[in-house]
Amino acid sequence: MTFWWVTGLLLVAALAVWAITFWNRRAMRRSPLLVANSQYMDRIPSFVRAQRAARVLRVLQVGVAVFAVIAASVLSGRIASERIETPEFSSRDIVLCLDVSGSMYEYDAEILSTFAQMVDSFEGERVALSIFNSTSRTVFPLTNDYDLIKRELENGATAIDFDEFGYRLGNRDYSEEKVRQYVEFTEGTKGIADEASVVPDGLASCGQVFDRGEEDRSRSIIFATDNEVNGQPVFTLQEATQRIADRDVDLYTFYPGAYECGPQCFEELQTATEDQDGELYESSDPEAIPSIINQIQKSQAEVLGATPTVVRTDHPGIGFVLTFLSLVGILVLGWRNR
Could you give the CA distance from residue 29 to residue 31 in angstroms, rounded to a whole number? Predict the structure, then answer.
């Protein structure tokens, strides 16, 4: 509500008018006029019904009048919604690059879910999703088809929320449909037997998703991994981040903490990211991911020199309809009570 104080003032004024009217009526109240031999009227059915109807009408009139004052006050206060738009973001390309090895499923699910909720605020940005384990798969290429993006991200968030280690050990039980969703989503990411989480090659593959190299666009990768490599990558992590930087791609790395690897995994990831002027975010709490995504949004706005603009949209419909119906109600009741 934009002018909430106007609503407050109108309600206070209405209350004051009611109080003054109430006390004036008490002061001006006259003694009742006694009429002889009228006691029998209380036993006449039509008279009793008329009295009851008059009382009901008075109560309704007061109730509708109070409702009308409240509705008009709300309408005067301007019900409005606000959203922040950053026009410069329309030339932004974002690749979600997710390590889908078993230790990352909680974080991947939260990242996909968070981005699915953000899609409705996008205006022109293109998004792609690439996932990797021992090999990589592009779930969908860069596109601004937001219906497709939201559908794929929501489906991915549901599918990847699967504890593969627990399932294989018999500690977690899933329905056949849930297993099928997980297998279909991660299909193509286990192309090399006895290898997993080949992080450098996964990142290098994500860098290949960008197209329109001749256009002046902002390009960024949101890279989520615990950097616990179990295999023989073609690239080193430094070589992979260098390839990303050579294509003028900004790197935002999310590190959830060590699973089995020691501090060297984090140190390697931090060095490789920051050496290319990338930013690294660390949190072992999947619930922290939405706030981290917001930090990345702010950081990108600063890099682009974008100026966020507050767009305010009025929603007078509800207040107007309620006020109109209240006035109609007052007129109808007044006519009925004449």
Answer: 7
Domain limits, CATH 3.40.50.410, in the chain: 84-311
E-strand stretches of the chain? 80-85, 92-99, 126-132, 136-143, 218-224, 249-255, 279-282, 309-314
Mean pLDDT of the residues in the chain: 80
Q: Assess whether pLDDT exceeds 60 at residue 189.
A: yes
Judge contact between 138 and 209, C-beta under 8 A: yes
For residue 61, CA distances in Å to 36, 54, 335 come to 32, 10, 11
**Nearest to residue 283, comparing CAs of 299, 297, 296?**
296
Residue 66 pLDDT grade (very low, low, confident, very high; cuts 50, 70, 90): confident
**Among the listed residues 95, 94, 107, 93, the one whose alpha carbon sits nearest the alpha carbon of residue 224:** 107
Comparing CA positions, the residue from 2, 72, 66, 3 lying closest to residue 320 is 72
CATH 3.40.250.10 fits 84-311, yes or no: no
24 pLDDT exceeds 60?
Answer: no
Q: Exposed (0-12), middle (13-18) or buried (19+): which is 191, by Cβ within 10 Å?
A: middle
Residue the block writes with tokens 């309704």 = 60
The token pair at 174 is 């899933």
Residue with more model confidence, 159 or 262: 159
Which pLDDT value is given to residue 262?
A: 75
> Could you give the CA distance from residue 234 to residue 246 in angstroms, rounded to a whole number?
18
Check residue 263 and give its pLDDT.
85
Instruction: Report the alpha-carbon distance of residue 104 to residue 98 in Å, rounded.
Output: 9
pLDDT recorded at residue 153: 94
**pLDDT (0 to 100) of residue 209:** 95
The tally of CA atoms less than 13 A away on the side-chain side of residue 247 is 23
